[in-house]
Amino acid sequence: MEELIKNKLLTLRREIHKFPDPSGFESATAKRIAKFLEPYHPDKIIHGLGGCGLAAVFKGKRAGATIMFRAELDALPIREKNDFEHKSKSGNISHKCGHDGHIAILSGLGALLNKRQPERGSVVLLFQPAEETGEGARKVINDEKFKEIKPDYVFALHNLPGFSKNHIVVRRGVFTAASKGMVIKLKGRTAHAAEPEKGINPALAISKIIPLLTNLPKKYALVKEQCMVTIVYAELGEKALGTSPGDAEIIATLRALNSDDMQILTEEAETIVKSAAVKEQLKFDISYTEKFPATINDQECIEAIEKAAVKNGLTIKTPEQPLSWSEDFAHFTEHFKGALFGLGAGKDHPGLHDPYYDFPDEIIEAGVSLFSSVLYSITESKPG
After folding, report:
1. Is residue 384 part of a domain?
2. Domain that includes residue 34, residue range
């Protein structure tokens, strides 16, 4: 890659890091990307995909397959603890998952496409909104404007702390887990703390529900593969010493490696909540949010990634188990042939969602090169 393009990508990445946007409100980030891509003359830019999304289309010389690459636009509600020149200017919002780096990689691919037009087919660079909330991919797919894209193949990468820089992490079948947020609301009756018998306090129910949910994955006989329940939030009453509380809320994340196990995990979790609530004479409500299916990689697409890695002299790593976190790119692999893979960010690099995390600029070039090799191998081998 030319040094000029490298420097431009570095500048873009740090500018986006400095001015992050939260999920669903990424219009400023999308404008920065569109402005960056203009000199590279995409054949078309589609604005407002799935909300604030953006797609740049580069057409080949002849008809052929359409291959789409995706990066994410949104940052996280995390206050940055780093102190460098490009640190976040947006208070409690910062890029702690590396989406700024993914944007730079995809923008670098756009720069290369300007210099080398595909022989066949089309290439779509999708900058997707609201990945962190699990809403963006589904909204893009359901957007009328997405119908004109009609990808034959879809690809995405995610940087992975814990793996050596520039190592390519691939896995056939399930790559990341399915997950969803379980929101539990318990309703009793508030009373004076001196007369608790006149109320219905959810405290005992909470004390039973939390350990039972946490230990539920240990019942491995219930499921085929590993699963997980994480309590992420709990609230009981108010900080008022004279009041016996009547309301409580618990939020947990359920994770599983396949749909059947997720269904079993969900049913068992609901049984735990219902049993505890009924025993304590509480009303209850269970709802779900931020639903992510498991990301399932296509065999042909993984082979294309592996060949591209070998071509670029990049080391391939294959984890025995799927990664336990979730990705809404799974909505794309449900509908299209595709694959999500990892790009090592450094063995000792701060983890994703860590307040000290910052995307390592040294891996941008490897990401661009691998995407480039994948796209040319597919678009130039598939007839129109």
Report:
1. no
2. 3-175+294-379
